[in-house]
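Limitations
The structure tokens in this dataset are predictions for the assembled complex, not deposited experimental models. Users should treat interface geometry with appropriate caution, especially where small molecules or nucleic acid strands are included. An illustrative entry is reproduced here so readers can see what is and is not provided.
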Amino acid sequence: MRYSGLKVLAEGLRGNRGWTQAWREPEPRKEYDIVLIGGGGHGLSTAYYLARNHGLRNIAVLEKGWIGGGNVGRNTTIVRSNYFLPGNQEFYGLSLRLWEGLEADLNYNVMFSQRGLLNLFHSDGQRDAFARRGNAMVNAGDDGVLLDREGVRRLVPYLDFDNARFPIHGGLLHARGGTARHDAVAWGYARGADSRGVDIVQNCEVTGIRVENGAVRGVETTRGAIAARKVGIVVAGRSSQVAAMAGLRLPIESHVLQAFVTEGLKPVINHVIAFGMGHFYISQSDKGGLVFGGDLDFHASYAQRGNLPMAEHVMEAGMTLMPMIGRARVLRSWGGIMDMSPDGSPIIDRTPIDGLYLNAGWCYGGFKAVPASGWCFAHLLATDQPHEAAARYRLDRFREGRLIDEEGTGSQHNLH
Ligand SMILES: Cc1cc2nc3c(=O)[nH]c(=O)nc-3n(C[C@H](O)[C@H](O)[C@H](O)COP(=O)(O)OP(=O)(O)OC[C@H]3O[C@@H](n4cnc5c(N)ncnc54)[C@H](O)[C@@H]3O)c2cc1C
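Predicted assembly:
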């Protein structure tokens, strides 16, 4: 079924009786060409592009819970392409271009809003680093404008520019950055993949990966064994656990990141604002809630909820940046499990096991990557060749010392 304004109008007049299910609830078959473990943003977009770009249909996405229950539905929805290093630049540039055409492509409203991302700086050194980054972004075909203090004040006058610890000196504005409705992204890709014949199987946990003579043969699940020629691991925070089912030890640590939402307010924050010194970032959802977050909880965990000290830290950072936020009431908070790679960049690669592929290491920035990740992982699965935009996201780079250390935090990204 194609969605359109006319369709909404017609259904409204007919009592909304004509809508059909957005995707089927199929029973898993005994065998598929490709099985994707994990029905998050990356698993679903991979399935969609396998069908759309490569004409492959005999595919299953196996999700242990429900579509959108993982990080894809837990993130703070920031979309950006403001990277400095080759490797990341071409990948996130591709992703942002795909975002810009996504709603038309999926025929689904993912509420993509290019409201602009503003990264604040608070010292001369930080200004120079942002100027350099902005130039690199522009040279890579993305956008970036360096604003001085008055330029920032014109955009966001409500910030505390003279707070004693981190006075605001200016900011880097990435106008094409913004937000999208996170669940809608999962639903849109699920619907698109399903309509092209992909089986999306919810409540189906993978409990084992069958490997014989160095090649993958399929998976064991809570709904029986499923044979497959190729298997893709796309489980974000559970990457290490699932890879261990095939005897692999990954360079990934899982950490919790929290998000917070206030009660609905009238429009007040028009941009996404990132306050790097205080580890705080904020935007306002279309429903009016202020959506914000901060740093990782500082210990490895598989719990999908965060601890109170980090909640306090995030609130303090928010108050430092915009004291008016103290009058808003926090309505909800939650946590998601982040798959932290040592250099902060992802992995899209084959594994040493024939037919077993890995998509992981998204850290706290994998939502914006959903389109390009699916595009490139589908290319790898279908052709056995890395896509040129993801060619540097190799698993062996940690052994070879070819890190893509975007933030310059060294080989312990999770501890920065
Ligand atoms: C609080 C928070 C804020 C964030 N903010 C941003 C942001 O602003 N911008 C941004 O770009 N990124 C952000 N991120 C990161 C982003 O959400 C993730 O990097 C990204 O969603 C991870 O990929 P995914 O969507 O495929 O993961 P998920 O949605 O977690 O998908 C993985 C799926 O695998 C399933 N699974 C696990 N084990 C198994 C198994 N054994 N069998 C079957 N299925 C299994 C899980 O149930 C899950 O549904 C944030 C994350 C959090 C938690």
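Some entries come with short summary sentences. For this one: The first helix runs from residue 5 to 13.
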